[in-house]
Design a protein that fits this description.
This protein is α+β, with helices and mostly antiparallel strands. The protein has helices at about 1-25, 40, 60-75, 90-95, 125-135; strands at about 30, 50-55, 80-85, 105-110, 115-120. It contains 5 helices and 5 strands. It is elongated.
């Protein structure tokens, strides 16, 4: 009988963890207060906004995220897309608390982090976050988009 309870607990835990990842993966969340400079990135900031992507070599979602961010950056003049190899920039990964790849940061023109996503974001969410960064609208809702 103990084995049945262990199996039920394991399945329940798996379902809870899976649902949590499903709800949070790739969602852009408000992340205020931190600033990122061009020197820290090793690339210039965009005139209006910057999309920063932390990737690793064997990360499949990183490739799709790269395409999304390239497309969105091309849609809006003055927006730059900077991709950072997380394995070679452990100092920046630690400083910005990057826990997994891909991680996407949406910066305003000054380098302030406006939104942040862990996992592959949806294109519509990136566009909305970029609109927020470009217009400098402060967010009144600290929840996910």
């Amino acid at each position: 009988m103990t084995g049945v309870w262990v199996a039920v607990a394991t399945v329940t835990l798996g379902v809870v963890v899976g649902l949590g990842r499903l709800l949070l993966d790739g969602r852009l969340r408000v992340k205020g207060g931190s600033m990122v400079t061009a020197d820290a990135l090793g690339a210039p900031l965009g005139e209006r906004a910057t999309l920063v992507q932390f990737s690793t070599a064997f990360c499949q979602p990183c490739r799709a995220t790269r395409r999304i961010l390239d497309e969105v950056a091309a849609m809006v003049p003055g927006v730059a897309h900077v991709e950072i190899d997380a394995e070679s920039r452990l100092d920046l990964v630690k400083e910005l608390d990057v826990m997994r790849t891909p991680t996407v940061l949406v910066l305003d023109s000054r380098g302030a982090i406006v939104k942040r996503a862990s996992g592959q974001p949806r294109k519509a969410d990136v566009i909305a976050a970029l609109g927020m960064a470009v217009s400098h609208e402060p967010s009144h809702n600290a929840d996910e988009m």
